[in-house]
Amino acid sequence: MKRAFVYLSIVFFFTACSPDDTGDVTPVIDLPYGLSTEVTIDEETVQVNATANDARNYGFLFVEGTDTTFVTSTSGTASHTFLTTGTHHIWTRAYASTSSFIYFIEKLDAVDIESDITVVGPPTEGYTTPMEYPGYTLVWNDEFNGNSLSNDWTHEIGNGNWGWGNNELQYYKSTNTLVEDGLLKITAVKEPISGFNYSSSRIKTQGNKSFKYGRIDIRAALPYGQGIWPALWMLGESFSTIGWPSCGEIDIMELVGGANGNDGTVHGTLHWNNNGNHASYSGANSLPSGLIFAEEFHVFSIIWDQNNIRFFRDDIQYHVMNISGIPAFHEEFFFIFNVAVGGQWPGNPNGTTQFPQRMTVDYVRVFQQ
């Protein structure tokens, strides 16, 4: 569906100033004029074409809730992907110089961007697990009811240090997270934002909810494709003081999307500090040939005690490690859920990768003895 809007609005002027002979301040008359724009919404892309007389270049600020994206252009053309339905704003500037410009604000009322984005899923079927186990008590869970994240979660924003340590390509922002219909949805989108070509979301319970030992179940349907890297994982609460890998890392589920069965294979991994060196130990589990984790919900679990951490997919154990001699895994850990794009492990997206891609989480549950 293609929609076009032409806007002519009140223009605001920002100029450099200089004193005249009497000491008063008078504006420098070095301004573009006649600024107008045409906004076109085509599929998931909003495109702005701006024109102004005597403009050297243009700037566009796309505002969606508390998230903003600024794009510069010498041609007067810029594009952006809004992820949520609602009222959004575009600030368009025409520059004569860095300190001399005119601008106006366009208000896009009730834009239904979400309905233009095609995302596979969420599926309606798949594996599930119970709310209780013999000998265990449910100590914390999130069923993702309502229309927003609970206060147990916070967002991490940006691209981190060297792509979150992995040379990842995405910029994390909050609006790629959606809670609706009893599901958490994290969507990776191909779009220009803050110097990066992809956006996604990364949420964590650091400082709010952390746990040591127990059974953890996470029911999720996963994205797919070359360069797509969803993860359901945990870091030690000591991360902010002693860093990684000394704090320890428990990757309950990672998928490195792509061909050759990658979209049907998940990995469970432990990372820790071994006498000053980064150590890791990983196992993998694959669905029957031809099936992928995007088609149904699956439950990714660990059972963690003083001796071992065991990894499960749909109650099938596929990996175990003895942790009795590793101090990091006897401390509190918090959750991180994210969908990365690119990086050292998955490599970059290519022509086969479809966007948007979405990870859908039905629940996370923590049981302890």
Can you summarize this structure?
The protein is mainly β and 369 residues long.
Structure description:
The chain is an all-beta fold. It contains two helices and 29 strands. The strands form five sheets. Strands 12, 14, 15, 16, 17, 20, 25, 26, 27 and 29 form a ten-stranded mixed β-sheet that branches. Strands 13, 18, 19, 21, 22, 23, 24 and 28 form an eight-stranded antiparallel β-sheet that branches. The protein has a five-stranded antiparallel β-sheet with strand order 2-11-10-7-8, with no helix packed on it. A hairpin with a 2-residue loop joins β10 (86-97) and β11 (100-111). The termini are far apart.
| Poorly predicted tracts of residues | 1-21, 113-120
Mean pLDDT metric: 87
- Helix fraction, binned, reads under 10%
Compute the separation of the termini in Å: 54 Å
Query: Which value, in Å, is the CA radius of gyration?
Result: 24 Å
Which descriptor suits the 3D outline?
elongated
Which percent range describes the beta-strand content? over 45%
> Major beta sheet, specifics?
10 strands, mixed
Care to count the β-strands? Answer: 29
Structural category? mainly beta
Q: Count of helices?
A: 2
